């Protein structure tokens, strides 16, 4: 049932293990999935597209275009709930890890917005080689899921690691991924994302570089695991389409505060990823401020601290997660914010780390708990960072509910 109605993009590459793709397809179809198969040219030497299209009841694509028509890899990457590359050869892993986009599988992988799983298949020494292991590490760091290889007799006659996982094991892997997905089913979540704009006059504002990417990824990751998510989003170009996420568009820090404060008492978990203005103009001119003097002084006043306000009213059954964007004394500043705003944990990102912070697709974070326990993560995509944060929330929520039960 866990895989019922899931849309699976199955990429088959050129290994003798490609023959197992037929039973993998059958098992996925039996589990209720819709399966779209992509093959490399080399894979078609091991198993025919006809066999696979018969089993999947769909056309199989092995090129970015068939005859006159273009096989839209971007659309397929967006359509899928999960992409599986099985078997994934050493060559394909290398292409995926280095963005070498010369076939429909890598093109779809690079466009995919869904979780990606890969089941390597190769000979013992190829598997052990530093180059292969480095590629796998890279793919894992970006949030892709390795389906571990099996041990046994290999096509070369050698015995050892490198066999593609059995189709049953691949399906189990997916089932446990999608099963874990509902661990936040009864959770009501509130997420803030993006910048706020504080208007000086009808044409100008004080703002910042936040794109909303980090917070939107968190909102989606929470919803993917069953939470009912309200996303309070400052001015952002992002389009959020997810059935579990309701978007509340706001502009200023005051609007964001109102939207959050109203919902806080119905919320189990709030994640505040927005970059909220700390100051706003005392007055907003009704018409455009004209250029007159050499300089212009602005009177600014503090905005309300949304996090500290919610933190001040936090009940024992609520979790409040904050972010800290720092440029110096990072850990010490973040720890102070945990106390001041009553966070359960804070996600620290620093503008000193390349690829971290505003308006990029990656982030490098540390999670610091209120007991000062710290977990440091590598640079990853914001989608993968969001999954780490949601894992941490899930663990904390489980601990809290155990504590509550043992008190009864
Ligand atoms: O949107 P992206 O381009 O993906 O960039 C992501 C990000 C860099 C914006 C994000 O990762 C991040 O760090 N968000 C918090 C930025 C920030 O304003 O940090 P801060 O250290 O100033 O604020 C600390 C915490 O208090 C934050 O949770 C913030 O949301 C909250 N806050 C701050 C001010 C205020 N008036 N009200 C608040 O609730």
Q: What can you see in these coordinates?
A:
With 408 residues, the protein is an alpha/beta fold. It folds into 2 domains: 7-178, Flavin prenyltransferase-like (Rossmann fold), CATH 3.40.50.1950; 188-286 and 293-403, Rossmann fold (3-Layer(aba) Sandwich). Helices cover 35% and strands 24% of the residues. It is built from 13 helices and 23 strands. It has helices spanning 20-30, 49-56, 73-79, 90-98, 104-111, 124-128, 130-141, 167-180, 213-224, 253-264, 306-312, 330-341, 382-407; strands at 7-12, 34-39, 65-66, 69-70, 82-88, 116-120, 145-146, 150-153, 159-163, 188-193, 198-199, 205-206, 228-233, 245-249, 269-272, 279-281, 300-302, 319-326, 345-350, 362-363, 365-369, 374-376, 380-381. It has an 8-stranded mixed beta sheet, with helices on both faces. A 5-stranded parallel beta sheet has the order 2-1-5-6-7, sandwiched between helices. The chain has a two-stranded antiparallel ribbon with strand order 3-4. A hairpin with a 4-residue loop joins strand 21 (365-369) and strand 22 (374-376). Helix 1 (20-30) runs parallel beside helix 2 (49-56) and helix 4 crosses helix 7. The longest helix has 26 residues, at 382-407. Ligand PMT binds next to helix 9, helix 11, strand 18 and helix 12.
């Amino acid at each position: 049932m866990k895989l019922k109605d899931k849309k699976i993009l199955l990429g088959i590459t050129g290994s003798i293990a490609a023959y197992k793709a037929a039973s993998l397809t059958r098992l996925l179809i039996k589990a209720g999935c819709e399966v779209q198969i992509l093959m490399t040219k080399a894979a078609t030497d091991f198993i025919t597209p006809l066999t696979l299209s018969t089993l999947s009841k769909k056309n199989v694509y092995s090129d970015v275009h068939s005859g006159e028509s273009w096989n839209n890899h971007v659309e397929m990457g967006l359509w899928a709930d999960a992409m599986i590359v099985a078997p994934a050869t050493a060559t394909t892993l290398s292409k995926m890890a280095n963005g070498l986009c010369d076939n429909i599988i890598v093109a779809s992988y690079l466009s995919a917005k869904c979780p990606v799983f890969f089941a390597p298949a190769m000979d013992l020494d190829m598997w052990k080689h530093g180059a292969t292991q480095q590629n796998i590490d890279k793919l894992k760091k970006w949030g892709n899921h390795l389906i571990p290889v099996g041990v046994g007799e290999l096509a070369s006659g050698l015995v050892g690691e490198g066999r593609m996982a059995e189709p049953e094991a691949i399906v189990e892997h997916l089932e446990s991924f999608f099963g874990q997905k509902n661990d936040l089913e009864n959770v009501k979540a509130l997420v803030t994302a993006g910048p706020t704009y504080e208007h000086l006059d009808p044409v100008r504002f004080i703002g910042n570089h936040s794109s909303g990417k980090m917070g939107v990824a968190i909102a989606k990751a929470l919803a993917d695991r069953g939470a009912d998510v309200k996303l309070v989003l400052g001015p952002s170009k992002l389009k959020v389409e997810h059935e579990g996420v309701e978007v509340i568009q706001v502009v200023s820090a005051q609007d964001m505060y109102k939207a959050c404060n109203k919902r806080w008492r119905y919320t189990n978990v709030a994640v505040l990823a927005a970059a909220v203005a700390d100051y706003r103009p005392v007055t907003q001119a009704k018409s455009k401020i004209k250029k007159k003097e050499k300089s212009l002084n602005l009177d600014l006043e503090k905005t309300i601290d949304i996090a500290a306000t919610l933190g001040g009213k936090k009940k024992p059954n609520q979790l409040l997660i904050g972010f800290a964007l720092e440029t110096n004394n990072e850990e010490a500043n973040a720890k102070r914010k945990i106390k001041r705003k009553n966070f359960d944990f804070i996600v620290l990102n620093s503008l000193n780390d390349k690829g971290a912070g505003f308006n990029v697709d990656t982030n490098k974070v540390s999670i610091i708990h209120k007991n000062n326990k710290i977990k440091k993560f590598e640079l990853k995509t914001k989608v993968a960072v969001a999954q780490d944060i949601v894992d941490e929330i899930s663990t904390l929520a489980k601990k809290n509910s155990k504590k509550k039960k043992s008190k009864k």
